[in-house]
């Protein structure tokens, strides 16, 4: 006769087995229940360092209930009863049998400091993962009135977590995470990015003298390889003080091999012949998009590092700091961009990301190229 599963049997099969840190926490709590005086040897952790609410409540109870006399503790369970009562105030699932099981599974109570260090390391990994997730969430929050400032503040909070972990686990030189970093994210609105970059390129072609004012903008800030290459063409021509117009830019693009991907020369010419607004405005919009993409990529890199339990705290610190360096570089360029932009042009930068800006709102008094 076939076996008929119990009502909840399938659900129980779906429950993943406990992670190694769960068993480490059991060993630590068992050691402290068996020898409460070993709490003096434990440092670097608190109740919120534990992975489950029951373990957190039990550790809080062990830390707060007055310790028993060692001789009395060996004779009776009065102290354990007090700990259980205190712990059940926060975690009703705690039972006397579970406390007894914790004592039984502890291999060496004298190893309590080592167990505590393991718990601290796993808590550091969870903290880093949570901070990285918050950064990613902030990047995608379209309701923010000042997205760059808010994202940078969240990046600072993530950096503070990294610094705290570094203080607890000083990094070793050259120890990088083994985890493969994820690829850079795609633009959240590719059509908007393409349109704004086209306006940047066309306006810079019409007013090449303004390119000097946006030296903080790099080719990598543009989302399409063709656009990045055309920006290199423009900056190169302007730097060499050569004539700049759609035809000269197209010729420079051919010399650099930018048309080898099948781009139509006529399409490039048409794109470069439709300026609107100001170079500074579109440059700042492009840099903002690049900075937010950098912040997301940084968050996802650190999230991937922290999501790999094989990475040690030392590796997490080194990997996270290298990733955060990309945000620091983008922040510096953003500060140059916003500090150098006159107030009347700075106000043209949209304050939200609710939708693509209109070209008429970005005009700064010159909607058509001057006669050359």
Number of strands: 0
What general outline do the C-alpha atoms trace?
Answer: rod-shaped
Q: Which regions contain 5 or more consecutive residues with pLDDT less than 50?
A: 1-13, 343-372
Q: What is the straight-line distance between the termini?
A: 92 Å
User: How is the main sheet built?
Assistant: none
SSE string, helices as H and strands as E: HHHHHHHHHHHHHHHH
Strand content: under 5%
Helix % is 55-70%
- The average pLDDT score comes to 87
How many alpha or pi helices?
Answer: 16
Computed over alpha carbons, the radius of gyration is 30 Å
**Helix/strand structural class:** mainly alpha
Characteristics of this structure?
372 residues, mainly alpha, disordered N terminus, disordered C terminus
How would you portray this structure in words?
The chain has 16 helices and no strands. The longest helix is centred in the middle third of the chain and has 28 residues, at 112-139. The model is unreliable at 1-13 and 343-372 (pLDDT under 50). The protein is mainly alpha-helical. α7 runs antiparallel to α13.
Care to give the gist of this entry?
This protein is mainly α and 372 residues long.
Task: Give the helices and strands, then pairings.
Elements: H1 9-13, H2 20-34, H3 53-64, H4 70-75, H5 78-88, H6 96-105, H7 112-139, H8 147-168, H9 190-206, H10 225-239, H11 246-255, H12 265-272, H13 279-306, H14 313-340, H15 343-346, H16 359-362
Helix pairs in contact: 2-3, 2-6, 2-7, 3-5, 7-8, 7-13, 8-13, 8-14, 9-10, 9-13, 10-11, 13-14
């Amino acid at each position: 006769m076939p076996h008929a599963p119990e009502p909840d049997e399938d659900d129980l099969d779906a429950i993943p087995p406990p992670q190694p840190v769960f068993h480490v926490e059991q060993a630590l709590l068992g050691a402290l229940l068996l020898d409460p005086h070993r709490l003096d040897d434990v440092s670097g952790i608190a109740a919120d360092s534990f992975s489950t609410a029951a373990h957190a409540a039990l550790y809080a109870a062990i830390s707060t209930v007055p310790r028993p006399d060692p001789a009395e503790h060996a004779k009776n369970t009065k102290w354990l009863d007090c700990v259980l009562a205190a712990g059940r105030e926060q975690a009703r699932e705690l039972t006397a049998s579970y406390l007894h099981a914790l004592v039984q599974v502890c291999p060496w109570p004298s190893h309590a400091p080592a167990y505590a260090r393991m718990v601290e390391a796993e808590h550091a990994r969870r903290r880093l993962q949570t901070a990285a997730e918050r950064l990613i969430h902030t990047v995608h929050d379209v309701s923010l009135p000042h997205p760059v400032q808010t994202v940078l503040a969240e990046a600072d909070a993530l950096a503070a977590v990294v610094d705290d972990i570094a203080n607890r686990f000083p990094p070793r030189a050259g120890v990088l995470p083994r985890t493969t970093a994820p690829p850079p994210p795609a633009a959240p609105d590719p059509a908007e990015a393409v349109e704004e970059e086209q306006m940047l390129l066309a306006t810079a072609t019409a007013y090449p003298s303004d390119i000097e004012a946006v030296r903080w903008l790099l080719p990598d800030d543009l989302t399409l390889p063709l656009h990045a290459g055309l920006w290199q063409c423009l900056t190169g021509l302007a730097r060499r003080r050569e004539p700049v117009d759609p035809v000269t830019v197209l010729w420079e693009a051919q010399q650099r091999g930018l048309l080898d991907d099948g781009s139509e020369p006529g399409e490039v010419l048409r794109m470069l012949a439709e300026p609107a607004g100001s170079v500074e405005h579109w440059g700042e919009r492009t840099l903002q998009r690049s900075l937010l993409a950098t912040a997301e990529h940084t968050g996802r890199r650190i999230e991937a590092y922290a999501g790999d339990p094989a990475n040690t705290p030392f590796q997490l610190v080194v990997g996270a700091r290298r990733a955060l360096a990309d945000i620091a570089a983008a922040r510096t360029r953003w500060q140059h961009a916003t500090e150098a932009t006159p107030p009347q042009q700075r106000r043209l930068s949209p304050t939200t990301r609710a939708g693509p800006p209109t070209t008429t709102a970005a005009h700064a008094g010159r909607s058509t190229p001057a006669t050359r």
